[in-house]
Amino acid sequence: MVSATGMAAVTQRSPLIPLDIAMLAYTAITTVAALLFARDDAPGLGWFLVANSLTVLVVFLAPRARAGGPVGRFVGDFYPLLLLAGTYSAVGLVTRPHGHPHDLAIQQLEQWLFGSQLSYRWIREMPNSVWSWYMHLSYLAYYPILSLPPLVLWLSGRRDAARTTMFGTLAALYACYVAFMFFPVAGPRYAFPLADNAATHVWPARATQWLLNWGDSWGAAFPSSHVAGAVVATVCAIRFSRALGLVLLPWTIGLVFGVVYGQFHYAVDVLAGLAVAAGVLVALRVESWRVRPLETQPYRDRPPAHPSPAETGSR
Fold it and tell me: Half-sphere exposure of residue 277, counting CA atoms within 13 Å on the CB side?
């Protein structure tokens, strides 16, 4: 189990922190998956392997950056989040050669659990423009939901809490990304025709479709990484910064429902994403986190932990 104080102890023993180790593990898995599944003539395969090699270099440079000034400390802590868009986009390179044979299995499970294909029917049977604004704006809030909790905590000096939050969020995302590579599901956006009604004509819906046309990763539907990452980030925010967590909560709830309403994910994807989030939060032992007042100070400004004369028995 990993706690905020436990992360601080790991940091003191090793130059690599859990964020670095998670990044190394994920990079190794994606490299193996690319070599196994990507076609030799796949466009971008060579650049993908070069990018993974550079990622490993960045990981081992991160401890040196964290030992530098404020900018270095920020980059050393936040580089996995700064690389996240590219990390997600690269998933499609591995998943596309699979085709999408697993969509049928997910659709059958959806039918068995819910009695219909919710991702197809909901937006067609409830084409409400106001509801669509909320659903699609919540979906567009995904990256702010992920980035604001660790950023606000880090800027307020709560570095251990920021690192714990980011580690949990990225662990949830990486778990989903690995699942995509070995069990790709294209999702209802590709499997069904897109809706065309009042709900799809509002600006957030059109902006979302443009964004997905530009940067979506094919085969990245099950489990929903949007749901898993956003839920972990929001729960961490509620734990460490109640006001921020309460601000993010309605947008996260909207995202959980919005990925189905907008025909981006099957409802089964959402359930699987919630299961991933729950697993990560249990592993982090949210209920037992204890962030000490000392941790509100920047790392380099902390006083040395020397034992007192009473503790050593000296005078």
Answer: 23
Question: Comparing C-alpha atoms, which of 303, 2, 266, 1 is closest to residue 160?
Answer: 2
Q: For 43-52, 53-62, 76-85, which range has the lowest pLDDT when averaged over its residues? A: 43-52
Smallest CA-to-CA distance from 258 within 115, 145, 106, 177 is with: 145
Q: What pLDDT score was predicted for residue 129?
A: 96
- Cα–Cα–Cα angle for 153, 52, 83, nearest 5°? 25
**Whole-angstrom Cα distance, residue 123 to residue 51?**
39
Half-sphere exposure of 74 (CA within 13 A, CB side): 12
Rounded distance, CA 91 to CA 130, Å?
33
Question: CA-CA distance, 93 to 46, in Å (whole number)?
Answer: 11
What is the enclosing helix (H) or strand (E) of 127? none
Q: Which of 199, 208, 190, 185 is nearest to 255 (CA)?
A: 208
Domains of the chain by residue range: 4-298
**C-alpha 218: how far from chain center:** 17
Residue 47 scores a pLDDT above 90: no
Percentage of the chain lying above the pLDDT 90 cut: 59
pLDDT tens, position by position, 12-29: 445 888 889 999 999 999
Q: Which of 223, 232, 230 is nearest to 177 (CA)?
A: 223
- Distance between CA atoms of 34 and 55, rounded to whole angstroms? 15
Q: What DSSP assignment string belongs to 81-122?
A: HHTHHHHHHTHHHHHGGG-STHHHHHHHHHHHHHSS-HHHHH
Q: Report whether 298 contacts 13 (CB < 8 A).
A: no
User: pTM of the prediction?
Assistant: 0.83
Spatial separation of the C-alpha atoms in residues 277 and 190, rounded to whole Å:
25
How many angstroms separate the CA atoms of 17 and 175, rounded? 18
| Unique residue bearing structure tokens 């409400």 | 128
User: Which residues are bridge partners to 185 per DSSP?
Assistant: 220
